Amino acid sequence: FLFGFHNSHTSGRHRGHDVPLPWFPHVLALTWFGSPCLQLCETNICVLWLQSDYHYEYTECDVFGSRWRVAVPNKADICTGLPDPVHGTQCAFSCSEGEFLDMQSQRCKKCAVGTYSLGTGIAFDEWDSLPSGFSNQGVNPNDEDIFTNCSSSTWTPKGDYISSNTDECTATLFYAVNLKKPGIVSFEYVYPDEGIYFEFFVQNDQCQSTDSASRWMKISETKWSKYLVCLNLTGNNVLYWRTTGYVVAGSEVKPVLLRNIGISGVSYTSECFQCKPGTYSEKPGSARCTPCPVDTYSNKGATVCLHCDPDKYSEAGSGTCKPRPACTVSDYFYTHTPCDSKGKTQLMYKWIQPKICSETVNGAVKLPASGEKQTCPPCNPGFFFSNSSTCEPCDQGSYSNGTACIKCPVGTEPVLAFEYKWWNTMPKNMRSYTLRQWLSHSENTTGWEVAGEYVYTTPGDQDVDNQMLTLKVPGYRLPQSVSKASENSELSRISFVFETTCSANCTFSFLAGYNQWLNDVVEWWRGSQAKQSYSFLIQKNTTDSFTWSFQRTGKNSEGRKHSGDMARIYSIHIANVIGGVASQCRRCAVNPAGFSSACVPCPPGHYMVNGTGVCKSCPPNTIIRADQSVGVDACIPCGPNTERNEVKRGVLDVLTTEGERMHYDFSALSNITSFQSGPRFTNKGLRYFHHFNIGLCGEKVRKMATCVDNVTESGNEVKGYVCQSTAVPSGIRSQSLVSTQPVLIGDALIGVTTDTTLSGISSPDWLFPSATGLRDVIFYFGSSESTLACKEGRSATVRLRCNPTVTAKDLITLPSNCSEGTCDGCTFHFLWESQYACPRCTTNNYRAIVSACIQGIQRTTYVWQQPLQCFGGESLPPPVVSACVSLDFWLRFGVSTGTIAAVLLMSISCYFWKKTRKLQYKYSKLVMNSSGKECDLPTADSCAIMEGEDAEDDVMYLSKKPFFSKIRRTSDGFDSVPLKSSSSLTNLELLFTS
């Protein structure tokens, strides 16, 4: 409406406030939108504010769970004249699905037709552009590579979904949401390639992140998978979707796709969302929109779907219709009908569904008529024709060539397998479907059809479609007559014969499903391939499905330009299948006593005697060949220092090449040991490592070394003595390494020796030069898993080197000139230095040191010979203390003995001197008493010397003067000696004079 007025005032009054008013022209045009207006009046002035100029919001909840509803202006220059705040609903208030909160009345109302609401959540299902609130970022995960620009490596909206990057940059998509109560975040994703690390985590306002063990997403093959995460804390939460590519030279990485992101826990939504094109909602209060069926379409916010014109078509969930092209031979395919009750079948033609072509357009072809009925081919081996002319499996213990079942003879057993060579109907355990790029609603479309002698790919809706054929297997079991297979030996084998005919760059792939999440490409062929056979070895019961995929071209082109390209599979055979059927029987081991005709297995370590079916044990310390030979040649000796079933629990004697026997105890090294190589870098600078696990002894009571792919949490793992995986740092906020591509290097212990060659495996000394003379003990491991590069399988050598100075138990290094652990890609070498790798000590490894005798005590101490080259075993004897005689004792003893001897000698000398004087005295008396004749002795006065004389003489002698006074002469020069006879004086004087 129009109204005019003249205002001479510069301001007005509104509820007691001054309101600055501009100068108005004489005519003011206002448009009425049907919303309440805010009226500003003073005297002859009335100004109306539209409600579209502001909106309502709630304040933060207080401690009592209450809040206020306030009006917030939509323009910065509107700050007065807004409605006053009023009490809002309680914080626990929420609306149900299909409802929204009308802020004017603060009550929940149902969404109108053509719209939907999650009630307490929000949803994002349109990705024409990045929705409001989302942020996108690309960063370089390797800070060292400053030359890689990752600013453009972000998530890209693709209409119905958003796609991640495929390079080695880290792309992060995040969204911040404020939760009023605990809720749930859900989304659908496609994660087809383990060459990209994909993680999702939530970080709340308390900086708490999702547990690192559950943040890694699972591989989803080529299907949309749904993911749910509980949001337990209210307040601000930031959702992160992050990918990092790991591109190997020559490989292509498929991106991660996201769609249908929903978040609940926001308490309410103040508006309903319009249905996106291709969907509709026909009832008020809808929680979600329904996709339009085939050949219909809808616009945004539609309440019904509209039918396409007869000359146009549309796929399910389409927002537009396309013109129908003229039908060609590429729009139909042929198949064989199932056998009828008379055992007849016929060739039949069908349009490819959904049918998009028109038969009425000029130049269009008609669907050919069905062929004449023909006799059905025989059933597949192990099956027979039932009364209803359908193929049924033979009973257990029977076999068949496809016509009738025959009981296996006594002493034989059926060879169970799945064998398909006639394709009259699709087997029950096989499924055929077509996958359009990343769209799940096309999975119901047939991809492969039976054609009697083969099964082939039908013309697809698009040349980029993947036509899938999947075979499910319940499990595997070896025949009873075969001894139990060791880990990683042949459990089963699948073989198939195929050919491809291509005018473009088609791709035919064979995939093995190791569990419900992981489906790896085993082999692929590109371009036309002549008829050929391929076999794949199955070693574990975890391989539960096989898939054949055919894609005409990988280029993004619409239409059916190469619909004549096809792949054919003529036969499929898979052995030792649980629930399988038999096409033949084999002789098995029977009870030697002949009391039972049932097949019995040969015990472990036994072989079947040729032609008898009797089990016989292998000689001691020999094992059965891996190829399950029969006869005496089936047993082969165990390797050096090993015995049947296990190594000697880490304790063994090793005979060196010099003939010396060394005793070792490797028990301390028997636990699983992990280590990694130095950092490696891809072409674009992404850092990664080679991660190794070693279980040296592999005892039964211990776990084997295990390498697992923890990117997908799919459980894809390998177990053995030595395994390897590729480890990549997970980047920002991550707390663990990402491990992928596990490879088994050694699953059998061949032997333990000091020789540098064993069973064709070499470990030359130049790989790890040693400065000591002690020989390294080498563990040789082998693997039966062969590859194109390693026809004989992989192998590994672990050198144990004695180093008593190493206190750490796990010091393992790789060759310096082969930094990845292998020089040829097949044989890996490791050096393990440890004090526990030394031989056990003996008495020859120490010597005794005897100390000096100190204070009668002497000590004997034992020390190790240097350099020390042993550990454990004999310990050093304790010091020995013994009594001893010191040098000072002998010195004192010698002096004392010498003194005593000297005194004794002097005493003896004095004694004999005294005796000599006596004899002289007596002789003098005899001379004095002699007759004076020559040669006559003096005559004795008596018969003997009387006692009195001796005493008298003695007294007389002792009473004499001292010795020095005796030599003094008298006045005449002689001593005074009394004599009895004067006649003898002259003789005595002469005697003394002489």
From TrEMBL:
<comment type="similarity">
    <text>Belongs to the ELAPOR family.</text>
</comment>
<dbReference type="GO" id="GO:0005886">
    <property type="term" value="C:plasma membrane"/>
</dbReference>
<dbReference type="GO" id="GO:0070062">
    <property type="term" value="C:extracellular exosome"/>
</dbReference>
<keyword id="KW-0472">Membrane</keyword>
<protein>
    <submittedName>
        <fullName>Endosome-lysosome associated apoptosis and autophagy regulator 1</fullName>
    </submittedName>
</protein>
<feature type="domain" description="MRH">
    <location>
        <begin position="652"/>
        <end position="840"/>
    </location>
</feature>
<dbReference type="InterPro" id="IPR056607">
    <property type="entry name" value="Elapor1/2_MRH"/>
</dbReference>
<dbReference type="InterPro" id="IPR009030">
    <property type="entry name" value="Growth_fac_rcpt_cys_sf"/>
</dbReference>
<dbReference type="GO" id="GO:0005770">
    <property type="term" value="C:late endosome"/>
</dbReference>
<keyword id="KW-0812">Transmembrane</keyword>
<dbReference type="InterPro" id="IPR039181">
    <property type="entry name" value="Elapor1/2"/>
</dbReference>
<dbReference type="InterPro" id="IPR056606">
    <property type="entry name" value="Elapor1/2_C"/>
</dbReference>
<keyword id="KW-1133">Transmembrane helix</keyword>
<dbReference type="Pfam" id="PF23031">
    <property type="entry name" value="GBD_ELAPOR1"/>
</dbReference>
<dbReference type="GO" id="GO:0005802">
    <property type="term" value="C:trans-Golgi network"/>
</dbReference>
<dbReference type="InterPro" id="IPR009011">
    <property type="entry name" value="Man6P_isomerase_rcpt-bd_dom_sf"/>
</dbReference>
<dbReference type="InterPro" id="IPR056610">
    <property type="entry name" value="Elapor1/2_TNFR-like"/>
</dbReference>
<dbReference type="GO" id="GO:0005764">
    <property type="term" value="C:lysosome"/>
</dbReference>
<dbReference type="Pfam" id="PF23089">
    <property type="entry name" value="ELAPOR1_C"/>
</dbReference>
<dbReference type="GO" id="GO:0000045">
    <property type="term" value="P:autophagosome assembly"/>
</dbReference>
<dbReference type="InterPro" id="IPR044865">
    <property type="entry name" value="MRH_dom"/>
</dbReference>
<dbReference type="Pfam" id="PF23087">
    <property type="entry name" value="MRH_ELAPOR1_9th"/>
</dbReference>
<keyword id="KW-1015">Disulfide bond</keyword>
<keyword id="KW-0732">Signal</keyword>
<keyword id="KW-1003">Cell membrane</keyword>
<dbReference type="Pfam" id="PF23032">
    <property type="entry name" value="GBD_ELAPOR1-like_3rd"/>
</dbReference>
<dbReference type="InterPro" id="IPR056609">
    <property type="entry name" value="Elapor1-like_3rd"/>
</dbReference>
<keyword id="KW-0325">Glycoprotein</keyword>
<dbReference type="Pfam" id="PF23091">
    <property type="entry name" value="TNFR_ELAPOR1_6th"/>
</dbReference>
<dbReference type="InterPro" id="IPR056608">
    <property type="entry name" value="Elapor1/2_GBD"/>
</dbReference>
<dbReference type="GO" id="GO:0044090">
    <property type="term" value="P:positive regulation of vacuole organization"/>
</dbReference>
<feature type="transmembrane region" description="Helical">
    <location>
        <begin position="889"/>
        <end position="913"/>
    </location>
</feature>
